[in-house]
Design goal:
heterodimer; A: 116 residues; mainly beta; 7-stranded mixed β-sheet; 4-stranded antiparallel β-sheet; globular; B: 111 residues; 6-stranded mixed β-sheet; 54% strand
Chain lengths: 116, 111
């Protein structure tokens, strides 16, 4: 299996622009997670899906952030409009049975976002 | 408010010696704990875990210790090898399918 795939790997944009990050989870995994990594706060969970349905979006920082999972093999995280403080590494992860307890989460390589 | 804290941002250890990484948590509902390892430009990868019903779990050179009364866990790596140089994240779960991560500890193993 190719593992979790994320694109793009790097994104540089200007403040105010729309940014879309993409994720393809491991086939057969029924949970998908979006995280943000910053120096100050480490890895923060933004939102997670179960069987394509958003379950908990309490970590989404603002209404500027939105996430979708139109099917089992694809998810997007969109920021509109982007701001410099959104600069971070965004990770997508997938797992069976959610990862809480006895199933680990498998992470993608991340997208490094820089908002100028 | 961070429920999982790794108070040492970095650790430097000589090859062959023991590396000890520490993690504290505040949520008494956490019942499963994991350590992840992350190399630059890669995503975190699972390393080792422990359930709250245990106080120790060992896997090769890696051992995790859990002290529930102190809400503290530690990861021991012995002997440390150059390939162990990475960022280590402590994570915890309250069995609600979410993981709360610490900020990470960067380990550097000196030859």
């Amino acid at each position: 299996d190719a593992g979790v795939i994320q694109s793009p790997r790097h994104e540089v944009t200007e403040m105010g622009q729309e940014v879309t990050l993409r994720c393809k989870p491991i086939s057969g995994h029924d949970y998908l997670f979006w995280y943000r990594q910053t120096m100050m706060r480490g890895l923060e969970l933004l939102i997670y899906f179960n069987n394509n349905v958003p379950i908990d979006d309490s970590g989404m920082p603002e209404d500027r952030f939105s996430a979708k999972m139109p099917n089992a093999s694809f998810s997007t995280l969109k920021i509109q409009p982007s701001e410099p403080r959104d600069s971070a590494v965004y990770f997508c992860a997938s797992s069976l049975f959610g990862g809480g307890g006895y199933n680990e989460q498998f992470f993608g390589p991340g997208t490094r976002l820089t908002v100028l | 408010d961070q429920q999982v804290k790794q108070n040492s941002p970095s650790l430097s250890v000589q090859e062959g010696r023991i590396s000890i990484l520490n993690c504290d948590y505040t949520n008494s509902m956490f019942d499963y704990f994991l350590w992840y390892k992350k190399y630059p430009a890669e995503g975190p990868t699972f390393l080792i875990s422990i359930s709250s019903i245990k106080d120790k779990n060992e896997d090769g050179r890696f051992t995790v210790f859990l002290n529930k009364s102190a809400k503290h866990l530690s990861l021991h790596i012995v002997p440390s090898q150059p390939g162990d140089s990475a960022v280590y994240f402590c994570a915890a779960s309250a069995n609600d399918y979410k993981l709360s991560f610490g900020a990470g500890t960067t380990v550097t193993v000196r030859a």
